Here is the input.
Amino acid sequence: MTLFGNVDAGVLRALLRTLPSALRAKPCELGDIECRREMSAAINADFERRFGKASDVTLKDYRIARPDGSDLRVRIYRKIGSEARGALLYVHGGGMIVSSIEDYDGRCMHYCTNTGLPVVSVDYELAPEAPYPAQIDDALTALAWMHENADEYGWDPQRIGIGGDSAGGGLTAGAVLKNRDTTALPLACQLLVYPMLDDRNVVPDSRFPKQFQIWTYVDNETGWDAYLSGIADRSAVPSYAAPTRETNLAGLPATYIDTGTLDIFHDEDIGYAKAMITAGVDVEGHVWNGAPHGFDYFAHNSSLAKRAWDCRFAFLVEHLQ
Here is the structure.
């Protein structure tokens, strides 16, 4: 893992200056899903406007069939004129309880326009209405669809990758583990952006200042409780649900993983990266000094965020183009 730069005071100032009022409001109580959904909707609307959307990217929705016959929506983003060989399946963040593919249009377009790769975003079901394993199963359904229809949509099935940020990064890691052990569909790489990996990370740590906790420990406990609500014995959480519980990480695809030193996921992300390296996985890891959770979006014009985005773009181009 590489630690980049000194603490970037400009990033922190930009974050404090640009955080929407929804984050400064009275915090949501433990277990209050609706409060978090209302806050998330306000935050995402605000930052989708600021982040903007690429003018050279088109998008189109498709309905694909889940194993039970119900519909799963995916959205494909394509850069006009690109002849990229691979494609990226993207799993959005939101603590498993909030957000949608619409909320991630700006981010998916950002990946698409800067790599040339088609991006397929999956509209997985949210917890607690649909607890584990619905989310990773939706991701794997979308992955299977991408493989089965590779010729029609013009991507190389050997150059398909999967990625996500925050909860989407954790769901990506879980789906990759399950794919390794079951369906074994080819995966060229996984992209884990400050992923949410460990259900046991619910005890506040003074190293991570509250004013920069875009996702708090109370949020984390709420999200994990909702996601794991179908599991009676929380001492036996499956590693597909919480990937840091996995003891065998051999055989995973090339992996990009990053985190910030002010992110409450810092320790679990570094621990997972080290465990993958020990297991022989090809890992590119970055620790962004002075960066809290979501810094690349909330302060997307900062020099540190631009460096982070550029590293992710380069990794995807290397493994999927």
Notes: Residues 33-51 form the longest helix (19 residues). Residues 2-320 form a domain with the Rossmann fold fold (CATH 3.40.50.1820). The mean pLDDT is 92.
